[in-house]
From TrEMBL, chain A:
GO CC term, one of those recorded: elongator holoenzyme complex
Domain of life from the UniProt record: Eukaryota
Protein name: Elongator complex protein 5
Pathway where it operates: tRNA modification; 5-methoxycarbonylmethyl-2-thiouridine-tRNA biosynthesis
Keyword Nucleus in annotation: yes
Species name: Coniosporium apollinis (strain CBS 100218) (Rock-inhabiting black yeast)
GO molecular function, one term: tRNA binding
Entry keyword annotation includes Cytoplasm: yes
Similarity annotation: Belongs to the ELP5 family.
Keywords (A to Z) from UniProt: Cytoplasm, Nucleus, tRNA processing
Gene3D superfamilies on file: P-loop containing nucleotide triphosphate hydrolases (3.40.50.300)
TrEMBL record, chain B:
Species in which this protein is naturally found: Coniosporium apollinis (strain CBS 100218) (Rock-inhabiting black yeast)
Compositionally skewed regions (Low complexity) per UniProt: 138-154
Superkingdom of this protein's organism: Eukaryota
A GO biological-process term: tRNA wobble uridine modification
One GO CC term, this protein: elongator holoenzyme complex
Protein name per Swiss-Prot or TrEMBL: Elongator complex protein 5
Species lineage: Eukaryota, Fungi, Dikarya, Ascomycota, Pezizomycotina
Family membership: Belongs to the ELP6 family.
PANTHER family (alphabetical): ELONGATOR COMPLEX PROTEIN 6
Residue ranges, compositional bias (Gly residues): 60-69
Region spans: Disordered: 52-81, 136-193
Pathway: tRNA modification; 5-methoxycarbonylmethyl-2-thiouridine-tRNA biosynthesis
Amino acid sequence: MPPDLQHRRTHNLLLISKLLSGRDNGSPFTLLLDSLEQSARPLIREYIRRANVAKTRVVFVSLETLRKPYGADVFVQGAELRPPDLQKEITLATSSSSSLSETLLIFDTLNALASFQSANLPAFLSSMISPTTSLLAIYHLDMALQLSHAYPYSPHPLTLLKYLATTIFTLYSTSHVLAQRYARDRSLAEPVFGLAEENEGAIAGLGRNDPRGVVLEMEHRRKSGRGVREWFFLPNPSATSTNGAVPSKKELAVVLLEDSPLFRRVLQDGGGEDDGAMDVTFELGLTEKQRRDREGIVLPYFDAQKGEGGEGGRILYDMGEEDDFDEEEDEI
Amino acid sequence: MPPSRTPPLLQPYTSLPAESSLHLLTSVLGASTNWLVVRFLCGALAENNAGSSWRSAGGAEDGGTGGLSNHGSGTTGQDEEGEVAVVLVSWMRDWEFWKSESRRAGGLDLARLAQQDRFAFVDGLVSLFMPPAADQISQQAPTSTPTAPVSSTQLSRPSPLPVRSGRSIPPRSPAVSSRHPAPAAPSDQAQHVSPLAAHPANLPAQPKGLYRLTSPALEHLEQVLSRAIAGVAQLPPGKASPRKILLILDAPDLHLAAADPSSGITASSMAISLLKSRQRVHATVLAVAADSPLVSAATSASASASTTSSLSSTPLETAHASFLISQAHLADVVMSLRLLDTGFAADVSGVLRITLGDAQDDGEEGQGLVEKEVLYSVGGDGGVKVFERGAGGGNE
């Protein structure tokens, strides 16, 4: 194993674990970019779960959510409030946390706020962040904003948000990533899903919100300004537990995408679902034992390269019993 | 009557949705969601209805006044899990359509269910832009300050909806032949609605559970909705558990498209209004159009995720796409209807793709629901076959 990968793995796993747990105020403003194909909710749940373990207070600001998510300490119904009132409400909710030191403030969508002309989104969000409060916000990438009175030269809200964020997670559906990787490895056209299918009437692709877990693309900006990019796989705890086996702590951990068992399997023998490349009645693949045995075989030309043979382009040939020595044949 | 008119493959999806869930049905031109909405009506109303229909068959003809007795006989035989009531809001189709369609395709008697307080219909189509009929106040700017007068008149006056079919149009200029005089001039409206205002008092039996929207203001929509919900939410006599209410919104995108955006009706305000209404009901089903011109704004937004995407599409496209996608993000189940990719076929009406939203926090719901893509065929008699690709309609 290359030491480079080993180093990257250790380093980035430590980094994401720090980010998810909100330790050391690792990322004051985390932006989650999701789409119809993969919702950011699984990642939010993971954040809340870790926050509960760490006794961090969770304030969930609902701009579109009906029910208080499990594990949230405070649920602010902000959908009907105008931005200034919302700000007051949130300050009230976060400031009353005298007993708990840290607060995780979650916005379930920023699209609604971003389309408010009167809301100065960067200023609004910046005012929420404090040394003890970190901000986690979802932005739906595929939602068109109704910017009726936008100043034509002002940047798009998403551009501002991306600029402002200290960590950006983009979420992808696991099965889609696997299918795309599978196609790429075979130099096929990568499949597209959902709205990108441009199939009239199909707004969401099959395989969206994969129950097995989420694929995260992380972009973290350090204080120094240097960016770290990495792909991770976050398994879904309920999916592993429904398989019967009690999920060990190891199974629930975030792993690098290339280390995830699902992904490795697809690299080896193609995605489970669309494995229809060869439809034959006999087994083309190898079992693990066959593979090991095959790798153990030393082929003759490796033998021949050792020892005396091979110099100067000389041809080595051992006469067999059945060989008929030919006088005429030269150079043997 | 067969026990169920819902195809078995669809049964788990169209039965009463889990609590506080949102189902999004999308349609395209040529693949309408009406049959699916009727299946949801069946899923919510049919089991109980089947029980009470034969039970109260003898007393069924006591019509308008017999609501209570019907009701009592119906409740005796019903299971203890609580009744389900439905509030259907339709911006695209009127009461007559839904009544006949659900009788034909679903075997439901919506009028009788409305009598039993188990069904309410809100008509968003007929008089969305008509000033409230009974109030003879100012004819100018009826929509600018609609809420106060609308609420008072709507509360005091039963809905004149059934009058519409039977009323005689007063002798007028022949130019006005439309049954729906929405775009008429204010003076015309005043004449036109005055017979309506006079009628309801001497109507023999006023059907319960029929409402209509008379103003595009969202406050008005919320008021009418909450009245309709309150109308069906009252505790049935002798029952401890309140009714579960299923709210079905058919084509709210029409409201978004028709209303004046300068009056504050945007995709986000619609979504907020919908969120408020969802808090009052058990579950919500939303049917929205998803033709490609209407979602192109979203497609371009997701493709480029960049700055100029919203400039190239019209406000209507942006609003529609924004509303549709925001609801699709929230939906637990998205059921998209579309036409066959390969063209028309005699025995296939279209493709139904069912995809699931993010699994809920609190567990057990969503069990048994898996994403799938099936073909469906709507017959001339309203019956629907749903089958897997290649199954050739063998499964009914």
